[in-house]
């Protein structure tokens, strides 16, 4: 039964591109993001189940390609989640800009009308309805809570620092183990992008390129717009190239320049693409 469950789940990778098209038109972007998060959780659970089943379970699930297919699913989910977030940000900017323009018109009309008290105009209702206090301003984008005021659990920072310290001392095996425990203990941590970057590099230095790639993928998926996102995506692309997955490597490295133009990661990704003879 477990093998059948895993195989059916892996087949979901082929359906990911049509996910958004098949979703109900009444769903909000927040609903879709929640569902994507739930799918990510299912993938994590299946990965753990697959590893726990041992060699026999891995063979029944499709052999060594099973984990690679799950990685492909995870990367596709990450790209889709990022596209949803991009769309949400664009909509927010349009709403904010439109609301500001309507408010300006109301102010100007009031100035022209006799007896109109500008002080009583109040806040302009945002386009599409909703609460004006929650409408984002195009001139003041929302801050990154993970950077400005992270909400950390007890021992979360110290556990991260312990893994980082082991990495900096060159104890890469311990660093990888500590940061793996951090990932399991603090899912959704604002430090996850950094934690998985260091874990990936530690595993890479230990010669475990495949699991290093998975760590960088997890880091990018956890925070696709954070300060480590470009580094994680770059490292993932390079690792895919080392693993012989040239097509996936070229696509991933190309995304670095698209998502983070002008960054050092983008320039390094361009060099890596040239070395792989990407078209």
Describe this entry's structure for a reader:
Residues 126-151 are annotated as: Disordered. Mediates coordination of peptidoglycan synthesis and outer membrane constriction during cell division. The structure is a single chain. The protein has 279 residues and is mostly helical. The protein folds into two domains: 2-143; 153-275, Tetratricopeptide repeat domain (Serine Threonine Protein Phosphatase 5, Tetratricopeptide repeat), CATH 1.25.40.10. The protein is 68% helix and 0% strand. The protein has 13 helices and no strands. The protein has helices at 2-10, 19-22, 29-52, 54-60, 65-112, 145-148, 156-168, 172-185, 192-205, 209-222, 229-242, 246-259, 264-275. Helix 11 runs antiparallel to helix 12, helix 11 (229-242) packs parallel to helix 13 and helix 12 runs antiparallel to helix 13. The longest helix has 48 residues, at 65-112. It starts with a helix and ends with a helix.
Count the DSSP helices.
Answer: 13
Tell me roughly what share of residues is in helical segments.
Answer: 55-70%
Instruction: Characterize the largest beta sheet: strand count, sense, and whether it forms a barrel.
Output: none
Give the oligomeric state of the chains in this entry, treating copies of one chain as homo and distinct chains as hetero: single chain
A few lines on this structure:
This protein has 279 residues and is mainly alpha-helical. The chain has helices spanning 2-10, 19-22, 29-52, 54-60, 65-112, 145-148, 156-168, 172-185, 192-205, 209-222, 229-242, 246-259, 264-275. It has two domains: 2-143; 153-275, Serine Threonine Protein Phosphatase 5, Tetratricopeptide repeat (Alpha Horseshoe).
């Amino acid at each position: 039964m477990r093998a059948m469950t895993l195989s059916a789940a892996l087949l979901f990778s082929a359906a990911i591109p049509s996910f958004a098209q098949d979703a109900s038109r009444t769903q909000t972007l927040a609903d879709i993001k929640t569902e994507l998060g739930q799918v990510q959780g299912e993938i994590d659970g299946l990965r753990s189940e697959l590893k726990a089943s041992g060699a026999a379970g891995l063979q029944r699930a499709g052999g060594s390609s099973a984990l690679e297919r799950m990685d492909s699913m995870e990367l596709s989910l990450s790209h889709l989640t990022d596209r949803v977030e991009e769309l949400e940000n664009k909509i927010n900017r349009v709403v904010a800009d439109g609301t500001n323009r309507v408010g300006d018109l109301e102010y100007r009309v009031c100035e022209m009308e006799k007896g109109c008290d500008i002080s009583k105009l109040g806040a302009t209702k945002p386009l599409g309805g909703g609460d004006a206090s929650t409408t984002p301003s195009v001139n003041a984008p929302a801050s990154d809570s993970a950077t400005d005021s992270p909400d950390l659990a007890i021992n979360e920072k110290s556990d991260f620092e312990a893994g980082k310290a082991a990495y900096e001392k060159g104890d890469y095996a311990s660093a990888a183990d500590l940061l793996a425990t951090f990932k399991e203990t603090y899912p959704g941590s604002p430090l996850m992008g950094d934690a998985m970057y260091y874990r990936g590099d530690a595993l890479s230095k230990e010669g475990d390129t495949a699991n290093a790639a998975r760590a960088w993928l997890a880091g990018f998926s956890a925070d696709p717009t954070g300060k480590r996102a470009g580094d994680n995506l770059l490292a993932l692309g390079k690792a895919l190239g080392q693993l012989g997955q040239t097509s996936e490597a070229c696509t991933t490295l190309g995304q670095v320049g698209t998502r983070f133009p002008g960054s050092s990661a983008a320039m390094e990704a361009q060099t890596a693409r040239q070395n792989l003879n990407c078209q």
